[in-house]
């Protein structure tokens, strides 16, 4: 295949990238973003702090820029994200609301944002990062005020606002079989048993070089798919200790190929999104000091071995 999206399409899947709003003016950036990907996710502009920074004030212009970019390039849009403890404005996290008021705030946020783009967004990350690594539910204003029912309610509110969008729960460090993915599995099973409208499970897959088992990732994705939900790789990157070298970049290519291959081996795996495509734009160096080079294009938007790795994986 000539591009990542064509390779993905040949296996009946989508290939996505996160899009940084601040980069949409650069033709090198938009050229790759439009030609190589069939799906786009807003890296930040649809998060709560960005889209409802003050109560009742919705800042839709940046999100609309992404929608316009996607429409111009016939791309699917992945909505990210509705209910998340992080990048949550202080008026929500420190508002001191009681359960009834906070429930109304969550419902209004979801109804407004999902409703705004109803029919135009293929998938929504409805609940993001709800779990701790030990499998317990993460403390947040949502859990602490509303109890664990906030998860089911968020899906119900999203379904009411856009019955056509596929609704996902998304998390990190859940790609392997472990305490966290076991807990996620139990929660998803329970939601399905209760008739909660959940369609998909997103696996972020912010991976570290050489720390993975392709066979375990595949069997873990498969057990979720066997529940009848779609599974998706939503935020893939593979970071390494800097500086990078040829050996590390070759291992990274293998890792990208193996992870994409795990998706391809699972019928219910709908696609793969990488968390940006060029190392110059990656969140990794800012979040994990000393690490970087996590994406398939380098700092100058030249394809790395990982690019061919993704092609191989499909
Ligand atoms: C990151 C963005 O890439 C950064 O630009 C931002 O400063 C912080 O968030 N899990 C998620 C994503 O679900 O939203 C995060 O994105 C990365 C981890």
TrEMBL record:
It catalyses: Endohydrolysis of (1->4)-beta-D-xylosidic linkages in xylans. Belongs to the glycosyl hydrolase 10 (cellulase F) family. The active site is at 235 (nucleophile). Its EC number is 3.2.1.8. Residues 1-313 form the GH10 domain. This is Beta-xylanase. InterPro entries: GH, GH10, GH10_AS, GH10_dom. The lineage of its organism: Bacteria, Bacillati, Actinomycetota, Actinomycetes, Kitasatosporales.
